[in-house]
Amino acid sequence: MSRENRINDAIDIAEISDADILVYSGMCLCEDFIEKLSKSIISHKKRGKEFIILGGGGLYYNNVEIESYKRFLTKYKPLAFISRDDTAFSIYKNIAKYDFNGIDCGLFLNQAFCPLKLNIEKYIVTNFDHNKEIKIDNLDNYKIISSTHSLFYKLYDLSLIKNLMISDIPDDYLNLYANANKIYTDRVHTAVAAISFNVPVQLFSTSIRNKLFNKIDAFNITKEMFLQLNNDLLILQQNNEISFLKSIL
């Protein structure tokens, strides 16, 4: 049996769950999502249940992806579509029963996660999974800790990195990032976590997914260190989204 067939035959708890509402978040507005997770939505809708896209965004935002996902949403209409960036909202609004121009779910981390205090000297995190480690100047007074979110395809390379943090527990990464003095990364959601915990961060990425940072005025995060979150703006965005959800549920 091929690897693809094994994946298709895998048990999906969402598909057989008796939940009233399924919630999908993150980069779910793409063809991979339809290919791998559509069965759970179709099964759920056939039983008269609902699903919500919460903080949803695309992968490429190209015509193939957009048309494919529009067809899917039109056929299996969600109860609510909550975007994580303005582009996704403008593309997919007016399909679900309810729409809201929201924020990325990771920007609620400061409400959902209480970081541990770490007994360690002040440190900076470098997190580069898509590019080689970028040389950062003027770090003499900091311990440098490297983290990775993608270890399976480069285990040998990882063995050569000093002060490397690897874990299969998300909390370990969140504790590391929340206590850092600064973070340099090419991972969109490492930057999201840093911002949520108000840790200075610079993102080395050209991904179209970077548009989600515009919702919190982090327009230049790929050009310079993003130093200070506008907490009032984030709290407003969080409260507006929570109020919207309360109004429809």
How would you portray this structure in words?
By secondary structure, the chain is α/β, with parallel strands linked by helices. It is built from 10 helices and 9 strands. The strands form 2 sheets. The chain has a 5-stranded parallel sheet, covered by helices on one side.
- Silhouette: globular
Can you write the helix and strand succession as a string?
Answer: HHEHEHEHEHEEHEHEHEH
Q: Identify low-pLDDT runs.
A: none
Number of helices: 10
Question: How does the SSE layout of this entry go?
Answer:
Layout: H1 3-8, H2 13-16, E1 21-26, H3 31-46, E2 50-56, H4 63-75, E3 80-83, H5 86-92, E4 98-101, H6 109-112, E5 123-127, E6 143-147, H7 155-158, E7 164-165, H8 170-178, E8 182-185, H9 188-196, E9 201-203, H10 231-248
Parallel strand pairs: 1-2, 2-3, 3-4, 5-6, 5-8, 6-7, 8-9
Task: Write a brief structural summary.
The protein has helices at residues 3-8, 13-16, 31-46, 63-75, 86-92, 109-112, 155-158, 170-178, 188-196, 231-248; strands at residues 21-26, 50-56, 80-83, 98-101, 123-127, 143-147, 164-165, 182-185, 201-203. The protein is 36% helix and 16% strand.
Features:
alpha/beta; 249 residues; 10 helices; 36% helix
